[in-house]
Automatic annotation (TrEMBL):
InterPro entries: AP_endonuc_1, AP_endonuclease_F1_BS, Endo/exonu/phosph_ase_sf, Endo/exonuclease/phosphatase, ExoIII-like. Its cofactor is Mg(2+). Residues 7-257 form the Endonuclease/exonuclease/phosphatase domain. The keyword Hydrolase applies. SUPFAM superfamilies: DNase I-like. GO terms for molecular function: double-stranded DNA 3'-5' DNA exonuclease activity. Belongs to the DNA repair enzymes AP/ExoA family. Transmembrane segments: none annotated. Its EC number is 3.1.11.2. This is Exodeoxyribonuclease-3. It comes from Neorhizobium huautlense. PROSITE patterns: AP_NUCLEASE_F1_1 (PS00726), AP_NUCLEASE_F1_4 (PS51435).
Amino acid sequence: MSFSITTWNINSVRLRMPIVEQFIVRRQPDILCLQEIKCQEPEFPLAPLKALGYEHIIIHGQKGYHGVAIASRIPLSEDHRQNYCNVGDARHISAIFERGSRRIRLHNFYVPAGGDEPDRAINPKFGHKLDFLEEMKALRADMPGVSSILVGDLNIAPLEHDVWSHKQLLKIVSHTPVETDGMKEVIAKGGWLDLMRQYTPEPEKIYTWWSYRAKDWEAANKGRRLDHIWSSPELGPFLDRIEVLKEARGWNQPSDHVPVTATFKF
């Protein structure tokens, strides 16, 4: 039995619904997780997704900022939204789905970007990001009777080959040692498996994000792996492939992130 799940920071779902539909028609994932939807629940474009077969949709929205959503072809239950850092941002949603006899808790995250200056003393946004990571360390993959998958825009490229230049980005937010060490601790303490790096080990580069600031993003190819798919260890052997759809960065009115899809064979 094949099963696929996609994560994509869409950077305004209402603006970019045409490319969401384009992607779905081409790839048809069983579950689509979106981040940075930038709308409240009543404004979310349900109709186009339902017309394409995604009858089960849960949304954690916020006016003009942040926001996450899960759209699924299969039923979702026990949805939950965690209020990280107790600031009321819509940055997390989770739900249970079932494949055969297996129950899986799916987490969809949008971790704070952290601003431009990697110093919490002068940049509160960076402090918020570090506090968010600290709270994520309590999230465990091994839950009794339930497997786990965690996806999302985590806004950190944790490994040397997750960025175009490790040395040049060590002082750039998303790849500073305090962030990368923090993410590695989230993975270790939670017992998570980094599926993208299981499928494509270092030193091969993986990028999922290319800045809007680049005049020719494709020629420069100064990317970072900011989008992630993790799981509890017992799901690792069932991973069939990971696809990073780089071409989506060149679509009409694109997000600066591209969709990442994991396919499992249970």
